[in-house]
Structure formats: C-alpha cells, structure tokens
Design a protein that fits this description.
Layout (H helix, E strand, L loop, with lengths): L1 H5 L6 H16 L5 E3 L8 H9 L4 E4 L5 H14 L4 E6 L5 H10 L4 E5 L5 H9 L3 E5 L3 H10 L3 E5 L5 E2 L5 H8 L8 E4 L5 H10 L3 E4 L13 H9 L5 E3 L12 E4 L2 H18 L5 H9 L5 H6 L24 H22 L1
Parallel strand pairs: 1-9, 2-3, 3-4, 4-5, 5-6, 6-8, 8-9
Antiparallel strand pairs: 7-11, 10-11
Helix pairs in contact: 2-14, 3-4, 4-5, 5-6, 9-14, 11-12
Length: 349
C-alpha cells in the first residue's frame, strides 16, 4: 500500500492534453493550439474573433484584399476580440510588402504566408517588425529551407484539405516531417475533424493543428445558409480535386464539393483545348481561359449561395460536419473527444 501511495501520480487527461499542446499554445498565445484555417470570404472578422474568444487562434484570410481593406478588417476584428489572432497573406499578392506593413501597424502578432514560398524581404520585414512568421511546408526540403529563412513555425497541410492542395496526404507528411523538424513548432492540417485525430498528431510531435472545414458551419460564420447546408449534406467522397484534362494545360488542383460547376469545368477545358488545337487560340490564351473559369466562383458560393455553379471548397473532413454550432461548442467538443481518447488509453494501461 505504501508503495502505491509513494508512486508518482499521472496527470489527468485534461492536464496531459494541455501538456501536449503547451508548445503550440505558447507560440500562439492561446489556450488551445488550434488554428482556424484561412478561407477566403469565410475567415473574416466574425468567425476569426469567435475562434479566438473561444480559446483557439483565428486567422483572417486576406486573399485579394487591398491594404486599406485589410486594415479595415483587422480593426473590425480587434473590436470583437482582445485575444490573439493572425492574418494569412498570399505570397503572390502584388502588394505583399504593403500588406505586411498593414499587419505591423495594427500590431498583429502572427503573419501566415501561404500560396508559395514567401520572398525573403517579406519574411525579414515581418520579423523586424516584431511579428511571428508562419509558413506552409508541403515537403521536407521546403520545410528545412523555410526554417533557415526565418520561419518561426510551420504548417504542413495534406491533400485531404479543402481549396488549393498539394499531392501528399497529411498521414505521410506527418511521418516525414514531424520526427525531423524540431527547431520550430509544426502544426498539421488537412482532413482533421475530430479530437481523436488531434490527439494522435500531438502524440506524433505536432505542436498543434489547423482546421478549416470543421468551422464553416460555426454559427458565427457569415457563409450563406446554402453553403453551410452543402457542408452538412456533404460526404468525404463528395470533396474531390479538380480534374486536369490535358497535360499541356495544367490545372492547379482545388478540392471542392462536386456540383454543376465542376461538370461544366470539364466541358470548358475540353472546348478550350479543341479551340487551341484548331488554331483559334494561342497556348497562352487557352491557359488563361481555363484558369479564369473559376474567377469569382468561391464568392458566388460563399456569399451569394450559388452552390451549384460556384466553387464549394471543402476538405474531406466535410463528412464530419453534421450541424451548425457555435465556435466555442465545436472547440469544446474537439477537446472533449481528445481528452476522452487520452483517458481511455490511460485506463487501458
């Protein structure tokens, strides 16, 4: 009996889960090491502030916003929360450096660079201004390069994610990168919709997770009711990448729910390729024609509710979205699932 009393007591599931999240939470300045994925037209002031107020880390999707518009969105978000949040900037934006300055002037604590390798001047400006830099790394070589370039944290996003995707699944990327990259916190993303998965990646060495699809049906999200209903109805098998018909005309893969727009995109590609082969279009004009097909399509779906012709970008975790809930309830549910899974493992021992 004395031996049992003298034995070190294991921390409870909640404390053990917090310990696994400690590095990521400390980096973000939050209670939970959960980032909201930056989704254009979706990740704006209302959802971002709701996530941050609930103990997670909201991220504004700058997308194509101009500097004045971004400054307005940041200020509006700051009026709704005094908790930390970040801003996602697309590296190919023509006014990237100006957008970085907007973030610095507003004292945004974290800038997330996405959509390509961020230019060194942008990273340097952000860091010199006192902001933490987060970058996406879809491969080991790039992860190492970004760390050398000054990234303070990385996000590795698998092909299960919604929107623009890379070719490798998170299950493989996590095995490849998590055991090796230890100098900076590494967050994982793509296909995560339950707490059990969050726990598993934390135990593999992830500092935290990023979820996007799971938060689209947050009550605070301003997405059109039709857009949310499409998510609630959708299954994992419905969220597929766009298909490329001709190797000479590459299509950047985008994972979205299949609809009439998806079918028309295939028909459009075939018609454009035929016009090119008939000599009616140059190769450059044909490529631009294909790329412009989806122009404004995400806004049509998210804002206008045209989920048949717009782009309903969604990750494969869409099948785990079953109802509209407040952001705080979703986060509490995720943490409860992770805690329960950890408790079951402890009981098994």
């Amino acid at each position: 009996m004395e031996a049992l009393l003298d034995a070190p007591q294991r921390p409870g599931p909640a404390a053990a889960l917090e310990a696994l999240m400690a590095r990521g939470a400390a980096f973000l300045g939050t209670r939970y090491a959960i980032l909201g994925g930056a989704m254009s037209w979706v990740s704006e002031r209302h959802l971002v502030s709701a996530l941050s107020n609930a103990g997670a880390f909201g991220v504004i999707a700058c997308g194509a916003m101009m500097p004045d518009r971004l400054a307005e969105e940041i200020a509006a978000t700051q009026a709704l929360t005094d908790k930390p949040f970040g801003v996602n900037l697309i590296t190919m934006h023509p006014q990237l450096m100006e957008l970085v300055q907007v973030c610095l002037q507003a004292k945004v604590g974290h800038i997330v660079f996405a959509g390509g390798i961020p230019p060194a001047p942008a990273i340097r400006a952000a860091k010199d201004g006192g902001t933490k830099v987060v970058c996406f790394a879809p491969a080991m070589a790039l992860a190492k390069k970004l760390v050398r370039s000054g990234a303070d944290a990385l996000v590795i996003e698998g092909s299960e994610a919604g929107g623009h995707i890379g070719p490798v699944s998170l299950t493989v990327l996590a095995q490849e990168i998590l055991p090796v990259i230890r100098d900076v916190p590494v967050f994982v993303a793509g296909g995560i919709g339950r707490g059990e998965a969050i726990l598993s990646y934390l135990e593999m060495g992830a500092a935290g997770v990023q979820l996007g699809t799971r938060f689209v049906c947050a009550t605070e999200c301003v997405a059109h009711a039709n857009f949310k209903r499409a998510f609630i109805r959708g299954a994992a098998r419905d969220a597929l990448p766009t298909v490329q018909l001709d190797a000479d005309f590459p299509v950047i893969p985008v994972r979205a729910l299949q609809n009439q727009g998806t079918k028309r995109f295939l028909e459009h590609q075939a018609a454009v390729v035929q016009r090119y082969k008939a000599g009616e279009l140059t190769k450059e004009a044909a490529q631009l024609d294909i790329e412009h097909f989806w122009a404004g399509a995400l806004r049509r779906a998210v804002v206008d509710g045209d989920v048949e012709n717009g782009s309903v970008m969604a990750g494969q975790s869409v099948g785990l979205v079953t109802q509209e809930q407040p952001a705080a309830e979703i986060i509490a549910e995720l943490m409860a699932q992770a805690g329960a899974a950890l408790a079951r493992r402890s009981e098994g021992n």
